[in-house]
């Protein structure tokens, strides 16, 4: 009986020792070496993920900045394109106006030629049979009257169409005045006041703010009558018309032409003052 009891005690002690030895590996303060290595690897992976996230954030920031800059560039290009299209449309309109003006001048030229052919003196006829010529105006608009030998022969059959046209211009009846000045030119192409009629047509258009038409009128006057006493005024008004249209470069060129071609005129003094006001010098 003692032997059996002794064996039981020994087996119990052996089992207890095995259990105690097994419990030592399960204590939290003594992890196995494999768990420590795994924790270090996890920490490295987390740091790598954080670095990747930082790089992605920086790349996203750069991408946003590039997109913003590109959008600004696209907006600027769109604005420039719109300005170019508006300028192109304006140029087309101005070209159409010039073409219409040229066509009108051609029509006037044809009518004038037909009128001259109709008034041609037949063989054996006296000059009085051709028809009356317009008398000189009693008071010229702004320039002096032509010399006595240049005046047209007075007529009692027709009123002075030039004076009527100028009176309508003075009253602000610009459309009527333009028609009357043109009728005067057609009926009396040899009258010494024809250049003045062309000039006042330009003044009518300028007063109506039809600046492109006024430029065409004054340019024609300057090409046909460059030495006329109204040439300085025509050149100066042409410059002002360009300025009213916002075409500053052409205005400066014309103002400098006034100073250069007519240095002692009132228009030259006005042109110098205008250039100084715009921040330019009379010389190029």
Keywords:
9 helices; Serine Threonine Protein Phosphatase 5, Tetratricopeptide repeat; about 0% strand; mainly alpha; single chain; elongated; 2 domains; about 280 residues
Explain what you see.
With 284 residues, the chain is an all-alpha fold. It folds into two domains: 42-115; 154-278, Alpha Horseshoe (Serine Threonine Protein Phosphatase 5, Tetratricopeptide repeat). 71% of the residues lie in helices and 0% in strands. It has nine helices and no strands. The chain has helices at residues 2-25, 33-118, 161-170, 174-187, 194-207, 211-224, 231-244, 248-261, 266-278. It starts with a helix and ends in a 6-residue tail after the last helix.
Please report the first level of CATH classification, the CATH class of the largest domain: Mainly Alpha
Order of helices and strands: HHHHHHHHH
Number of strands: 0
**Which structural category fits the helices and strands?**
mainly alpha
The largest pleated sheet is described as: none
Radius of gyration: 49 Å
Write the CATH homologous superfamily of the largest domain: Tetratricopeptide repeat domain
Question: Helical proportion?
Answer: over 70%
User: What count of helical segments does DSSP give?
Assistant: 9
Low-confidence stretches: 22-28, 118-158
Give the domain tally.
2
In CATH, the topology of the largest domain is named Serine Threonine Protein Phosphatase 5, Tetratricopeptide repeat
Shape: elongated
End-to-end span in angstroms? 139 Å
User: Roughly what fraction of the amino acids lie in strands?
Assistant: under 5%
């Amino acid at each position: 009986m003692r032997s059996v009891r002794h064996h039981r005690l020994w087996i119990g002690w052996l089992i207890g020792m095995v259990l105690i030895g097994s419990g030592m590996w399960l204590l939290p303060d003594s992890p196995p070496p494999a768990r420590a290595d795994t924790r270090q690897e996890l920490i490295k992976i987390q740091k790598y993920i954080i670095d990747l996230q930082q790089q992605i954030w920086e790349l996203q920031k750069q991408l946003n900045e590039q997109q913003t800059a590109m959008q600004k560039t696209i907006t600027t290009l769109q604005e420039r394109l719109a300005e170019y299209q508006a300028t192109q449309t304006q140029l087309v309109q101005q070209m159409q106006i010039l073409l219409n003006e040229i066509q009108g001048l051609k029509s006037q030229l044809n009518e004038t030629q037909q009128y001259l052919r109709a008034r041609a003196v037949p063989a054996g006829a006296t000059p009085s049979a051709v028809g009356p010529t317009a008398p000189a105006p009693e008071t010229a608009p702004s320039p002096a009257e032509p010399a006595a030998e240049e005046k047209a022969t007075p007529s009692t059959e027709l009123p002075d169409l030039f004076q009527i046209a100028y009176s309508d211009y003075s009253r602000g009846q610009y459309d009527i005045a333009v028609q009357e000045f043109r009728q005067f030119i057609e009926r009396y192409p040899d009258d010494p006041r024809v250049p003045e009629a062309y000039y006042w047509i330009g003044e009518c258009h300028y007063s109506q703010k039809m600046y492109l038409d006024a430029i065409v009128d004054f340019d024609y006057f300057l090409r046909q009558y460059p030495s006329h006493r109204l040439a300085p005024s025509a050149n100066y008004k042409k410059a002002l018309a360009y300025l009213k249209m916002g075409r500053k470069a052409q205005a400066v060129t014309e103002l400098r032409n006034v100073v250069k071609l007519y240095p002692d005129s009132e228009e030259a003094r006005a042109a110098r003052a205008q250039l100084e006001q715009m921040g330019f010098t009379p010389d190029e």
